[in-house]
Inverse folding.
């Protein structure tokens, strides 16, 4: 039986690069894959973009109300089934869309590998990731390191070069203004404590 896999990791853990490597491995053997990413991830437009500089066109842009199961089911009436479906930035999917990924594996017998973040910059779970953790047949952590050398499990958000710990859950990279950095828990809480200490008067007001 096909399975739903969730491969998560902090920023810079190589998720997009790994996805493109998996796609290449399938295609090198003459197999077809279907690559998707949520439309809310505007970085790279209709391409996957790896921090190594590797890019790949996306086959399907997942809009918020798209029924992924029905889309794939319809594609099967016009083309052979893909050997695998790969989704990037899966944390941005809705819980319902994650359930549709599970249905694809169970009812259409197509394996799905979803790559994404587990938590946001404030250590809260994304709705899509939380549902993946609940439903995936297999869960794998992709590891990376903090600048201090420890294992990084947290995602820090920087605006104009400074860490921030307040704001909307979703803010896509925008050049030098907004960026993300993977941090170990020790460095994360050090930066968070410094942020709230610096802004405590503003927050109190």
């Amino acid at each position: 039986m096909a399975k739903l896999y969730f491969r998560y990791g902090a920023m810079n853990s190589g998720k997009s690069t790994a996805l493109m490597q998996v796609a290449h491995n399938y295609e090198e053997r003459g197999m077809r894959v279907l690559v998707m990413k949520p439309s809310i991830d505007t970085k790279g437009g209709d391409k996957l973009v790896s921090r190594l500089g590797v890019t790949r066109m996306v086959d399907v842009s997942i809009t918020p109300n798209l029924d992924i199961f029905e889309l794939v089911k319809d594609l099967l009436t016009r083309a052979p089934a893909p050997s695998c479906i790969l989704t990037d930035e899966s944390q941005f999917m809705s819980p319902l869309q994650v359930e549709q990924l599970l249905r694809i594996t169970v009812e259409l017998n197509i394996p799905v590998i979803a790559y994404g973040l587990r938590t946001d910059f404030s250590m809260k779970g994304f709705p899509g990731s939380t549902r993946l953790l609940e439903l995936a047949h297999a869960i794998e952590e992709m590891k990376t390191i903090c600048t201090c050398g420890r294992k990084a499990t947290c995602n820090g958000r920087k605006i104009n070069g400074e860490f921030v710990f307040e704001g909307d859950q979703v803010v896509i990279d925008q050049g030098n203004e907004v960026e993300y950095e993977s941090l170990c828990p020790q460095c994360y809480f050090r930066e968070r404590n410094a942020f709230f200490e610096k802004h405590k008067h503003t927050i109190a007001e």
About this structure: The mean pLDDT is 91. The helical segments are 15-28, 68-75, 95-107, 127-135, 185-198, 200-204. The first helix runs from residue 15 to 28.
